[in-house]
């Protein structure tokens, strides 16, 4: 069952990082109410739609979910079984931006507290993402402009500069984390996503119903303020 959309406040007047931290806490609190069974069921549906979204790809850069993040294990295994090369983050010292290749869930190991499990085997440089035909990135929320609210480390935003130009970036979120009524705060290094994967479907942002509805709702919300400014 679709949950009600998460309501996020406007953050005008806040520094971008302060605003992001406030919004992250709101989304994390909402995610904490999702049961383990619901997360497992959603994982299978994320995999179904994720496979459709990247059906063209021979190499995909993705992520290993942890905690309440949209579950990625089923998608990783399905891609691997299809013969797709799957690149996963290997954080290393100081959150180094390196990669490893997925071989199985059993190969994924937690290397340090608080970090997601990582594949064993050869550690590949940041530039290896240039081999990817698509990127599947985690997100806490996504708005109509493609702004992705991440966990706060900036890992994906910084490593994406090594991706091939035009490589599509897919953000994976629950449906209620598609933010229609406000724009998320943006920092200089932020890289927008091109498309969204949810447990119900996947879609390109450009020209989507979500984008059109969001822009319409925000225009309506701003109209009273515009009228007030034009009054004598």
Q: How would you describe this protein?
A:
One of its GO terms (biological process) is folic acid-containing compound biosynthetic process. Its cofactor is Mg(2+). It is globular and about 50 Å long. Mean pLDDT is 90; it is low at 224-232. Helix 2 (36-53) packs parallel to helix 3. The protein has one domain (16-230): NagB/RpiA/CoA transferase-like (Rossmann fold), CATH 3.40.50.10420. It has 232 residues and is of the alpha/beta class. It has helices at 16-31, 36-53, 73-82, 155-159, 209-230, and strands spanning 59-61, 85-90, 98-101, 134-138, 141-143, 148-149, 169-172, 178-179, 195-197, 202-204. The N and C termini lie far apart (49 Å). The strands form 2 sheets. A 7-stranded mixed beta sheet has the order 3-2-1-4-7-9-10.
Report the strand count. 10
CATH class: Alpha Beta
Distance between the termini: 49 Å
CATH homologous superfamily caption: NagB/RpiA/CoA transferase-like
- Write down the Rg: 18 Å
CATH architecture: 3-Layer(aba) Sandwich
Helical content (DSSP H or I, runs of 4+): 25-40%
What does the overall shape look like?
globular
User: Whole-number average pLDDT?
Assistant: 90
> What order do the strands of the largest sheet run in, or round the barrel if closed?
3-2-1-4-7-9-10
Number of helices: 5
What is the SS-derived class? alpha/beta
Low-pLDDT regions: 224-232
Task: Provide the β-strand percentage band.
Answer: 15-25%
Give the SSE string.
HHEHEEEEEHEEEEH
């Amino acid at each position: 069952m679709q949950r009600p959309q998460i309501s996020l406040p406007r953050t005008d007047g806040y520094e971008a990082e302060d605003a992001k931290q406030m919004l992250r806490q709101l989304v994390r609190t909402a995610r904490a109410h999702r049961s383990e069974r619901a997360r497992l069921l959603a994982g299978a549906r994320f995999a179904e739609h994720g496979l459709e979204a990247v059906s063209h790809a021979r190499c995909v850069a993705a992520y290993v979910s942890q905690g309440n993040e949209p579950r990625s294990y089923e998608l990783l295994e399905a891609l691997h079984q299809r013969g797709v090369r799957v690149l996963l983050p290997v954080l290393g010292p100081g959150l180094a931006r390196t990669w490893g290749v997925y071989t199985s869930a059993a190969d994924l190991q937690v290397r340090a507290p608080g970090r997601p499990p990582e594949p064993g085997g050869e550690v590949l440089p940041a530039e290896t993402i240039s081999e990817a035909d698509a990127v599947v990135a985690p997100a806490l929320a996504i708005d109509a402009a493609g702004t992705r609210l991440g966990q706060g480390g900036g890992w994906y935003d910084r490593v994406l500069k090594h991706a091939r130009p035009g490589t599509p970036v897919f953000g994976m979120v629950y449906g209620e984390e598609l933010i229609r009524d406000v724009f998320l705060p943006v920092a200089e290094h932020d890289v927008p996503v091109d498309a969204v994967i949810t447990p119900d479907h996947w879609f390109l942002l450009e020209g989507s119903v979500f984008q059109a509805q969001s822009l319409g709702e925000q225009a309506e919300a701003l109209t009273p303020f515009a009228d007030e400014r034009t009054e004598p």
